[in-house]
Specification:
The chain is α+β, with helices and mostly antiparallel strands. The protein has one domain: Hotdog Thioesterase (Thiol Ester Dehydrase, Chain A), CATH 3.10.129. The protein is 26% helix and 40% strand. The strands form 2 sheets. Strands 2, 3, 5, 6, 7 and 8 form a 6-stranded antiparallel β-sheet that branches. The chain has a two-stranded parallel sheet with strand order 1-4. It is elongated.
């Protein structure tokens, strides 16, 4: 769900949970496609027989694949400043890959508004804490602080 509010309202809502996304299934075809795009064909990602004998008992998604899915997830939990003309990915503050995402797992993102900075000139820098959860698992797959620059 996309919501819009003034920068002042956004600042008052720092710490607010922006939402939890729908579950997203990670299948082997998606992992293989990511491996091809990134040239990262390590056996734990693409060789199902070898991966079964490895530490995770199955193939796992690339950590960077999980990270890349934040752009997809953010569309479901967006909080945008009023008068938005354009938004860009500004980077990351911190990323931790905590638990492997095994093939066949479903993941979702829980987003929390961490900071809102008026940078002047119609620019607003927003920090969001993203916790990517794995269905049925106690530990999250990843926690990442993402930065978005909004132009109003």
């Amino acid at each position: 769900m996309v919501r819009m509010m003034s920068v002042e309202e956004m600042k008052k809502n720092i710490g607010m949970e922006l939402g939890v996304t729908d579950w997203f299934k990670i299948d082997q075809a998606r992992i293989n496609t990511f491996a091809e795009c990134t040239e990262d064909r390590q056996f734990i990602h693409v060789n199902e027989e070898m991966a079964k004998k490895g530490p995770f008992g199955a193939t796992i998604a690339h950590g960077y694949m999980t990270l890349a899915l934040l752009s997809y997830f953010s569309a479901q939990t967006s909080l945008l400043p009023q008068g938005l003309k354009m938004a860009i990915n500004y980077g990351l503050n911190k990323v931790r890959f905590i638990a492997p995402v095994k093939v066949g797992s479903r993941i979702r993102n829980r987003a929390v508004l961490k900071n809102v900075e008026d940078k002047g000139g119609g620019r607003v820098l927003v920090t969001t804490e993203n916790t990517v959860e794995i269905e049925g698992e106690a530990k999250p797959a990843m926690v990442a602080e993402s930065l978005a620059m909004f132009f109003t």
